[in-house]
Amino acid sequence: MSYEYNNQTIPFKHGYPLRLIVPQWYAMASVKLIKQISVIDSNFKGPFQTIDYVYYPNKENNKNAFPVTTINVNSTIQKPLDKEILNTGTHLIKGITWTGKGFITKLEISVDGGITWLYAKLEPTKKC
Q1: Lower CB density within 10 Å: C or N end of the chain?
Q2: What is the torsion angle, in degrees rounded to the nearest 10, for the CA atoms of residue 64, residue 66, residue 70 and residue 75?
Q3: Helix, coil or strand: residue 22
């Protein structure tokens, strides 16, 4: 349980007065507002644990689905905007990438639908 972060009281929207911390689990999957704790001898089958915060490795079915514990490597392109029409020439492609475990050590980008890949410059930002 935690009652503060960054030397400040936990705000209500994050579970004030206490927040349950589950080691090795992504905070989004942790309960914020606790009224009762029950110890059970099996996996809990609530919607957040079985549907919402679950990774689905197979696009066709739910086979081998597993709960979100740590954040997978993820990224998003911020510039150019989605479906923005670009003239020929050189263009800046800007985005962010993050992971819940480990480090981002290289960055590649494809501008031809994944046929070829080019190394991109990785600029570290301050850690949150």
Answers
A1: C
A2: 60
A3: coil
H-state helical runs in 1-128:
47
Nearest to 18 by CA among 35, 40, 41, 38: 35
Give the Cα separation of 104 and 107 in Å (integer): 8
CA distances from 81 to 13, 76, 84 (A): 31, 11, 5
pLDDT score at 120: 87
User: Any bridge partners for residue 109, and if so which?
Assistant: 118
Return d(Cα 10, Cα 15) in angstroms, integer: 7
Model pLDDT for residues 62-76, shown as the tens digit of each residue: 899 888 877 778 888
CA atoms within 13 A on the CB side of 46: 8
Q: Which of 72, 37, 36 minimizes the C-alpha distance to 53?
A: 72
What's at 53, amino acid-wise? Y
